[in-house]
Amino acid sequence: MFDEIIANQILQGFMSPALTLFFQIVTFFGHPIIWFVAAAWLFWLGKEKRSAILVSLIVAVAVISTGVKTLIARPRPAGIEILEMQDTTYSMPSSHAAIGGAMYAFFEKKLVGKLKPLQALLLAAIILIAISRIYLGVHFLSDAIVGLFLGYIIAKAVLIYEERMVKINLVKLVKMEWPFLLSIIFIASILLIQLLPSALYEAQTLLGYYFGFILHKQGHKIYDAKNRPLILLIGTALLAAIGFFAYEIGGIVGAVLFFTAGLFVTFIWPFAYSKLKL
User: Fold this and answer.
1) Which parts of the chain fold into alpha helices (H)?
2) CA–centroid distance for 131 within its chain
3) Nearest to residue 246, comparing CAs of 5, 63, 16, 32?
4) To the nearest 10°, the Cα dihedral for 252, 155, 129, 63?
5) CATH of 1-162 given 1.10.3210.10, 3.90.550.10, 1.10.606.20, 3.40.50.2300
6) How many CB atoms lie within 10 A of CB 15?
7) What is the C-alpha to C-alpha distance for residues 156 and 150, in angstroms, rounded to an integer?
8) How many CB atoms are closer than 10 A to CB 46?
9) What does the pLDDT look like over 112-138, one tens digit per residue?
10) Do residues 129 and 148 lie in contact, with contact meaning Cβ atoms separated by under 8 Å?
């Protein structure tokens, strides 16, 4: 770790208010919340399959990377400028970099061989996310590198079974009997709350998302071309409010709010829009 701190020191040797602001903005694109909002937009605009894969990918990367952090238990950098508020988790791997690596894999299939300039731009953006973690003083160089590769590998594994996942998660669940389905979701929620650290409460979002999808399949859709800006604007604002309180409150209530955030995307907001004619 002593040798690796040199990378942090070199980057911070170029420190300036403008560069710090730049990396603070860049690093935000490695946070799961921005991609969950993107998944919500995809769902509200009728791209349900793509949305489901993106949400599954986000949660898988967040859960696995946090689990690996706990196993390795590597302390965060010390003796340098810390330009971002640190949480209580460990350093290896960088979850932000893992999200970045996963997002590169997610979009790579659409860009390879067709839009090379955009592919290069995407790769540059992902690398900048990794660099931002080092510059801000919250990760070592190896944390960022491992995070990038871990996220990419997880995403590739998920995308290989994309068709199978959609059929299992979205179609077969819809056909289950309601008492059995509710029992599964209840048991899964209790297990997640009891067995996983509080940092993984976001996994409740996935349960809420799929449960809402089942309800959504009963006929509530909001694919309204005329009001798309309104749909996205109001829906995003309400989703952001739920997410804010989920992160701030934490604990059991926070887990319930994370579940509600997933449910909001696939059922609450489509139901409100279709039934209340917003």
Assistant:
1) 5-12, 17-28, 32-44, 48-72, 95-111, 116-135, 141-160, 162-166, 173-174, 178-195, 203-216, 228-249, 251-263, 269-276
2) 19
3) 32
4) 20
5) 1.10.606.20
6) 14
7) 10
8) 14
9) 555 567 778 888 889 999 999 988 888
10) no
Domain boundaries, the chain: 1-162, 176-278
Place of tokens 């955030």: 261
Reported as a single tens digit per residue, the pLDDT across 160-177 is 766 555 554 444 544 545
pTM: 0.79
Q: Residue 182 has which token pair?
A: 């509710």
Tokens 């010390």 belong to which residue? Answer: 78
Distance in angstroms (rounded) separating the CA atoms of residues 51 and 35: 10
Token pair in block for residue 37: 């909002």
- In three-state secondary structure terms, 108 is helix
CA distance 214 to 266: 8
- Residue 68 identity (one-letter amino acid): V
